[in-house]
Every structure is written in C-alpha cells, then in structure tokens.
Predict the structure.
Amino acid sequence: MGRRVLLIVTGGIAAYKVLELIRRGAERGLRFRCVLTRAAQEFVTPLAVASLAGEKVYSDLFSLTDEAEMGHIRLSREADLVVVAPATADMLAKMAGGLADDLASTLLLATDKPVLVAPAMNPCMWQHPATQRNVERLRGDGIRFVGPEEGDMACGETGPGRMAEPEAILAAIESLLGPGPLAGLRALVTSGPTHEPIDPVRYIANRSSGRQGHAIARALAEAGAAVTLVSGPVALPDPPGVRTVRVTTAREMLEACEAALPVDVAVCAAAVCDWRPERPAEDKLKKREGKGPPLLELTENPDILRRLAVRGEHRPRLVIGFAAETGSLLEHAREKRRRKGCDWILANDVGAGSAVFGGTRNRVLLLRDGEEPESWPEMDKQELARRLVAEIARAFGREPA
Ligand code: CTP
C-alpha cells in the first residue's frame, strides 16, 4: 500500500494542529493532499497548509480549474487513506447521512478508500445523542476513529471532545497504512546545478532546474526512507519530509554528500559543473578598454558520483547516476557507468529540442550491470521518480508500494 493521505480539514479551532500533523507526517514519508472546507479556512489558511504539504490545496466543488486539474472522483480515489481532522459534529452528521453538498462531503461519499476520523468539538456536542448516533452509524459503515480525548477545551469547558494529538493521529494512520517499503533505509540525492564563481557577481552554471532530483528525493521519502537532499541553487521549495542541504559549488556539494554518509542508496541527479574558474576574482572583473575579454583559467571539479561509487568505507550499497547526453545515448551511457563505477545509470537525451533540462517530463534508458538496457516511455518527472523508487525497493528486496 502507498503512503498517500487525502486530508480533509473541517472548521474547528483544532484545525491549527493539522499543520503539525502534516509537518511530522511528511518527515515520516506520508504525502498529504489537502482539502479545506470553507469553515476550516477561518482557522487555518490554504497557504499555510499548501506550504507544508508541498501541494496545492483544494476547497471548491464547483471550481472549473480544480476540476480540470483533478476531477473530484479522482481526488477521492488517488489517496491510500482519507483522514478527516478535525471532524466537526456537522461533518459527522453529513457523513452519517450521506450528504454531499460541498467538496469535502462529496469526496467522502465518492471514495473507495479507508477513512479515519479525528473528531473535535465541545463535550456537550460530542455527548449529544445525535452525535453519538452518527458515530455509531459511521463505525458500522467501517469508518475508523481516533480520539477524541478528554481535557480542557478551547471553549473553556472540560470533557471529551478534544482532537487527538498529531502523534496519536499519525500512529493511527501508520497502523492503517503500514510502513513504507523503504522504511529503515537511508538515502542521499543530489539535485540541481552548481554555480562556480568567476567573480563576486558572475558564475558558470547550466540549465538544470532540479526537478528530477527533487522529485526523486520526495518519492524516496514517501516510500519511508530517511532522505538527505543536497541541492545546488534552484527555484524549487524543499520537498516535504526531506532533510535538504543547500549548497552552491561542486566542492560544497561533495562535502555535504560526504557528511551525509553512511547511506544505503545514493542517487546523483545533480548537473554538477565539470570545471570551475581556478582563481575566482575577489572584485568584480572590469571591462578593460582595448584589452579584450579576460581569459578564464578552469580547473576540474571533483566527480561526486564517482567519489561515492569508488569509496571503500561507507560506499552506499546502491549508487545511481544519470547520464546527460546529446548523442549516441546507449554507447556513452555504458561507458559512463563503467568510468564512474556506479551500479545503475539513467541515460537521457538532453539534446536541443528534448526539453528535459528545465522541463517537467523526462525519458530515460535504465542501464544495470548484466541486464539489457530498459527503455522507459516519456513520463512526468514525478512519475519517473516513483518508478525508480519502486525499482530501488525491489533491489533491496522490499515490496514496492
Ligand atoms: N556528476 C557528479 N559530479 C560531477 C559530474 C557529474 O556527481 N562533477 C554526476 C551527475 O550527477 C550524473 C553523472 O555524474 O549522475 C553524469 O553526469 P554527466 O554530466 O552526464 O557526465 P559528466 O561526468 O559531466 O561527463 P561528460 O561531460 O563527459 O558527459
């Protein structure tokens, strides 16, 4: 089973706790897609939820843009588990009655996945026969409950009705989903370009956006691995649940990678600059009338992939590289895998017109020792990341999600 949670937030003061729930859950490899009812937005902002979840938040049943992006039926089914937290008395009543008058209640009626509910309300509302009747009916429908707990309430009263703490909700989620296939493994991913300074304002770089590397880090975390992402300068947010170390140059990237060892698997997706200016100028280089442009003396950067692949102590059990080529893909990739000493290489054509560098889609050829090259169809970089992670899980003898 996967680790994707559709989190429905309804309107109660406990909604503020979902930020903590998402943050801690992401650290444990859960991926949240969130829906906020109108009332929930009075307590927590879609922006705060989206920032922590790393995904767009949905709220409106009749939004044509939302429906075009993701129909409500698909939204209700793409998750592995639906969680309602906090669940108000009103939402429990709607669920028990099978109402579907907004996006949240419609998703709950349309889903074919297990549903976990964390109620939160005033003690009298919780103990009211109508609510208790609804809870009984929902239990009978197979809905699971976590909490509510007893204690002091935001409304000043004491009794049962306080939403379960994020840790307790996470424990309930994990007992329903089981651990991810890569639970207990450590992973290292490099991503993005590096910038190699020429002077304080100029640098050598490349067109890498970091999308593929970031997607791999995220997919590894979703599969339950403890992930360190070492990223060059990119315009992407840090993936949720991933320890991200931001660096600028190739040498800094190498240092951060070595500091992250030991790991079980390393994926080098960064487009590291092969060379750097030997002596970056301390002051901005001036245009010198009549003297022509300055000559840049370059020196070689460390090859991070190779360093990881050939080390004796703490060599990751699986080292995976990319081969960005503009021609003779298979031939160059084979040679590169040998030269770098890595176990697998994903070769992609980055020639003019391929739109791989900086784009959202990718097409690769997977080369493994002793196996025929495997050609994967063009797909979204996130999908490619998940497929790669499924292969990694298999290589470690784990059942992929
Ligand atoms: N790589 C690395 N450190 C470098 C250069 C490359 O870790 N200094 C890694 C990349 O992350 C990628 C693989 O090596 O996984 C291949 O990168 P690529 O740019 O295709 O190859 P190069 O080593 O630069 O070789 P060439 O320029 O001959 O294609």
Summary: The longest strand covers residues 318-325. The pocket of cytidine-5'-triphosphate is lined by residues 190, 250, 268-270, 272, 274, 301, 303-305, 321-324, 336 (CB under 6 Å). The first helix runs from residue 17 to 27. DSSP finds 14 helices and 21 strands in the chain.
